[in-house]
Amino acid sequence: MRRLLALLGLGALAGGVVLLLAGVGAGARAGREVEVRLLAGRYEFSPPRLSVQAGDRVTFRIRSRDVTHGFAVEGTDIETTVLPGREARVTVPAARAGKLRFRCSVICGPLHPFMVGELVVEPNRWPLWGGALMLLVGFLASAGAARGAPRPDLTRWRPVRWLLRRRALQFALILPNLAVFTVIVLAGLIGTATGATNFATIFVWIAWWGLLVLVLVPLGGRLWCAMCPIPAPGEWLARGAIVGHRARPLGLGRPWPRRLQNLWPAFGALLLLVLFGLVVTTRPLVTALLLLGFTVLALAAHLVFDRRVFCRYVCPVGGLLGVYALLAPLELRAHDLAVCRECRTKACFRGGAAYPCPTFEFPGGGMARNTYCVLCTECLKACPYDNVALRVRPFGADLAVARGRRADEAWLALLLVGTALAHSVIKLGPWGFIKSWANLEAAGPFLLYTGLFLGAVLGALPALHLLVAWLSRTLAGARQVPVRRLFVDYAYALLPLGLGAWMAFTLAVVAPNLSYVPRVLSDPFGWGWDLFGTRATTWTWVPLAAVPWAQLALLLVGLWGSVHAARTIVAQALGEARARRGLVPVAGFLVALAWAFAVLYFG
Amino acid sequence: MRRLELLALAAVLLVVAGIPAAVLSYQALGRDAGRDDVLVVIRTAERGGFTPARIVVKRGQRVRLRLLADDVTHGFQLLHFGVDAGAIKTGTLKTVEFTADRTGEFPFYCSVRCSALHMALMGTLVVEP
Lengths: 603, 129
Prior knowledge:
The complex is a heterodimer.
Chain A: H1 2-21, E1 33-41, E2 44-46, E3 49-53, E4 57-64, E5 69-73, E6 79-82, E7 88-93, E8 98-103, E9 116-122, H2 126-141, H3 158-165, H4 168-190, H5 199-220, H6 223-227, H7 232-239, H8 264-275, H9 277-280, H10 284-304, H11 309-314, H12 316-324, E10 330-334, H13 337-342, H14 347-350, H15 378-382, E11 388-392, H16 407-428, H17 432-438, H18 443-475, H19 483-491, H20 494-510, H21 516-522, H22 547-574, H23 579-602
Parallel strand pairs in A: 1-4, 3-9
Antiparallel strand pairs in A: 1-2, 4-7, 5-6, 5-8, 8-9, 10-11
Helix pairs in contact in A: 1-2, 2-22, 2-23, 4-5, 4-10, 5-10, 5-20, 5-21, 7-10, 8-12, 8-16, 12-16, 16-18, 16-19, 16-20, 16-23, 17-18, 18-19, 18-23, 19-22, 20-22, 22-23
Chain B: H1 2-32, E1 37-42, E2 50-51, E3 54-58, E4 62-69, E5 74-78, E6 83-88, E7 93-99, E8 104-109, E9 122-128
Parallel strand pairs in B: 1-4, 3-9
Antiparallel strand pairs in B: 1-2, 4-7, 5-6, 8-9
């Protein structure tokens, strides 16, 4: 009863904060008429950030410094074109407190999608009250342990079991993606060099990335890997079959080098990808060459080595998907391990009626986490006892599994959180000079940016994390536990917040640029085609005013998941008795990280 | 099972070879249809300028130009025939029509500042007798 009252009270408090954020209770003030001279140039507005009071009417007098730009205020239908040599005038009513983003609305070059400016309408309470909500969430989530929830098996349902046993299932999933992939590579190689009008850049970095991070990963973990076209040609060649099961493969089947049987190759590849991220995601040719390169690499790997080593050890996206798959509500596991103990053939691992697990997992024995399971269902088809289940489970379930935590996965988790922060600064921020540096325009600035990026993401953040681990051990009085162990274990607590942050970041990048999707469907190569009559689309499907709310919700849910997981992980590492004290620095670190994102997005 | 395998192989080949073939043939066919219809792709001078930079027509011909701004916003002026398409935003197409009633060589320019070499961005319309 007391708990219910407390929960109700806190819920009311949270509701009150939300209402405050929405501007309820803020008296309507007679505002001033403010005039702002804005200079638009590639790729920022000058000044990049402005401050006005709620109730003001802001008249922008905008001039272009170089080529034709546009000016559009997110969340409104205010939009105008800024031609060189002519001043454009636009009045924006700054009714509610908060932050209004404006962006360039006429394609002006490769970094056009990231040309944004910020109008801060004071008093902007979002960072303060967002932080208060985060403290609240951190406090609430740190209480109580997880209760084991039932995990319903989807294969108990006949249609699902029938579908998953079809050998043609993987092919049916891969073929449409292979078709889209072909168009992407072709468009990148021979289509227009303008990223925003090329099918390659829009369909990889807006459509696919958006679907991946916002839908597939949170709901299905590594589900993309089951339908990815990149390893497919190599796998078909190495197996000597596209759909069927052949007993004798055609590839050389050599073992992958021992030294590389970890995620460090994937870590290195991901690091390179995010370092060159701005250039890769805005040039169609680079996107096409990247995908083609991965395909060739995967092809070679399949012909030389045994099984899907590219996906398991090398693919940078695989590294990302692998760690975030721990959070997914879907899992492929043995239904009854007692049956597996009696099994002589171990067909799920060794092969039999179907191929052995392509990522060397052992559902019948060691597989307790989602990290390396690509959901290809070969084990389900191979098992002679029909003992493999596809289960739905609570979010974040694998974070509680202590066995199998490794340094390479921990560093991936750290890299991903750091990159989310860094990319939010570079791509979503209004600071053009950072974008310039990251745009590989000159060697010197790019090296400076590289140093800063690596220093922050691989230096400062892990150092803070190490400090937190040490503080946790010290406060809990558990000096016998090695700090290195805590460094690795605690990194897993970063994953829910990391995914929440990536979802918030992706939403902010994808939503304003969604109108490019119908455009490139009609004119994939930028050659003046109009296949479906949608080449002139300018509307977006998502009401952009809702994006900050969605971002706040994602960060709060991610923070909840992280602190909740940290509670379990700290108890596992330091013992139940000392868990509360050991949790304090970890929860504090997580709240601080979440608040850093909030300040960046809303402040 | 064998038939399914062959079907799958056919589908893969259709996709990997068929899509590029379809794209390239559609583009080639599009060019030939409507001989008076000329697609002019406009890029900054640094990136190649007008493509084609030289358009040859016959005197008296009704000329239809489809102008596509490829990289940034461009303009188009062929003032000798009273053609001023104004600003053409990136990725958009504007069509202009006129009758080539005089012979000679007539320059056309970009009329919206698009790069440092904007002033050098020009092409020539050649009207033959």
